[in-house]
Amino acid sequence: MLELFEDFREGDVIFQTTNSRQAEAIRLTTKSLYTHIGIVYESEEGLYVYESNRSVRTRSLRAVIESGIDQKYVVKRLIECDRLLTDKAIANMKKVGDQYLGRLYDSFFEWSDERFYCSELVWKIFDEGLGIKLCELKELRDYDLDQTLINRLKDKFNENIPWQEEVVTPIDIFNSKYLVEVFSNE
What we know:
By secondary structure, this protein is α+β, with helices and mostly antiparallel strands. The protein has helices spanning 21-30, 61-67, 81-84, 87-98, 118-130, 147-157, 170-174, and strands spanning 13-16, 36-43, 46-53, 55-60, 73-78, 138-139, 166-167, 179-184. The strands form two sheets. Strands 4-3-2-1-5-8 form a six-stranded antiparallel beta sheet. The model has no long low-confidence stretch (mean pLDDT 92).
């Protein structure tokens, strides 16, 4: 049965575990349960999540939660959200995200604005929309990559894997000093 947190606010970040080959590679690489994140917003139709999953898109909060393993999720909120997440700030975050709508998912974790993976999208929306870098970026070489992922990267980059590529993962953002947990059903 779906357990829905009752006090969602715009700008909340939702973390969950999903089930896919990409999610498994992320779990193995980051040693974290969290493989997907997005930002919660409100509209006249209700709560939705801005995410990169197949492409940059919005999806109902309910659909996002239901797509996670066992419908488990964690919600984190920006510290000092009442001061920082004004209507103008939320509108700015949405504007930043809207420019990326429809961009394809980036399964190779390249740091560009052509394709996006979920944590890259969240990080950039907070950075460009609020001027808050949720965490320090790491380099691809900082992670203990799963062999399957290494092989995929070798196929894409012809053995010239860009080890210096900037990367951010769901667990990096989960551990942000700027976010505080407000809900977990794990």
